[in-house]
What does this fold into?
Amino acid sequence: MTIRAKVLWFAAVAVVLVCVMGLLLFGLAHHGQRQRQQLMALQEQIDSYQRLHALAWPFLNQLAQARQSQTDTRRVPEELARQVDAEMARLADSFAREGAGALETENQEQTRREHREVRAALLRWSSLAERRVHELHPHVSIAPNVEWLLYAEFEQTVGQRIQEVQDEKRFELEALQQLLDVSVYVVEWVALCFPVLCLGLVMLLAMAILTPLRSSLQGLIHAAERIGHGDFDVHTHVASRDELGTLGAAVDRMARELRESLEEKQRLSRAEAEASEREAARYHALLEDTVRQRTAELGEANLRLRDSLQQLQSTQEQLLSADRLASVGRLAAGVGHEINNPLAYILSNLRYVHQELAELTGVADEQGRQEMLAALSEASEGAERVRLIVQDLKTLSRPDDVALGPVDVAAVVRSSAKMARHETRDRARVVEACEGVPPVHANAARLGQVFLNLFINAAHAIPPGRAQENEIRVDARLSAPDQVTVAVRDTGAGIPAEHLRRIFDPFFTTKPVGMGTGLGLSVCHRIITALGGDIRVESEPGQGTCFFITLRVAEGSTGDSTQSAA
It folds into this structure.
């Protein structure tokens, strides 16, 4: 028998047991419901007989009232007959519910006969009582003793019969209640024992199916493990006629074929080993020659790479120098103007002093002496202004060394702002808020080149003529225990979103032809990255641009600048 047939047989037995248990419980429940209906019907019949028994005394009272009011007493028995018929209808309905599905037809007929006898006896008594009351003298009222005599006659005839019927019904009710208790007890035991029996039968059937399957599977697993470890001399010992038996035979056949293949392969491998030993020497020599050749080629490639790296480093230094030269070119006109003004009044004052000294023939008076001193003082002040301008330019034009050390950010920002003043003074106010931060680990010249490029770019983003309405603001703060972040923010036109990801690319510029080379921001990014820092930008069209430069704090710094930009 196949595994599928076993599973289907097991499922069929389980379904049959479940159906049998369901039908049994349904039958017991239906039987209990029918007994409950019979109990309710018997109780209603007892209540109906009780109400029939209670009709006697109100009937006598109605007769007495009709006699006293000298009305027709024959209507009172008619009213009683209607009430009796109504109760009989209720009895018939309850009897119909009680007898639904009953098999004892003789008992049903006896009950109907009892109903008819009780009705006839009650109506006869009511007619007899009405006739006796009617035969009394018209002016004689019904005395209480007459009512009691009539009620006693009712009890002796009709009441006794009603009581007998009620006793029979109560006896039937008690017997039915006992039968219902027995039925409930049987149902409880059946509901408890039958599922247990079914479960035991299902478990036995499952064990009968699973035990052979488990034994077969263990044999297959053991054989598979031995084959996996290279032992092909195995036998599964699966004797069943199902799919596992077929699989066991296939495994045995596979192990036999693998063993034969292994033996054949070993024979071939021994023959190949002898041939491979002969080829190994030749391949070894060829491999040594190939390794020597490749090693020489790698040495030559390494030399070429070293030369290329040196050329790249030289090109990078030239690019930085070219950017500084471009910055100097952009600042040439402004620096010339800044130097020309103090030189003009230096030369004028020196001519004045020279002329006065040439014309002086005697001792100079005090007023002339004071005028010459004032002229010399103004000339000295102008020369000092020229010295400061040249000193600021030294930061940008000094040799391109890469020495790193503590750098005062505020001093570098202040020097760069002075050099870019010619570009910014007609466009925006420059606000510096860089005090109170520790020195950073950088190079003053290269850091100044970065801020100078940012100031010039910010100035070019603001149209000239409204310097008081626009602002270029530089803020420096300690963003982390070992980092200083400098924010250069302007109120210019901003950068479109599609250009933000390309602004640090070399030769990318949004300025008109002749206004920029596209190297400024690329060089800034390269300088900050080489210093171990980070530069990023945030901008929205019409809302301005902000560059964030983050640099490491110099080691051993306590917040005081130890190196200026000069």
Residues 100-104, 559-566 have pLDDT under 50 and may be disordered. Strands lie at 405-407, 429-433, 440-442, 471-480, 483-490, 534-540, 544-552. The domain at 403-566 is CATH 3.30.565.10 (Heat Shock Protein 90).
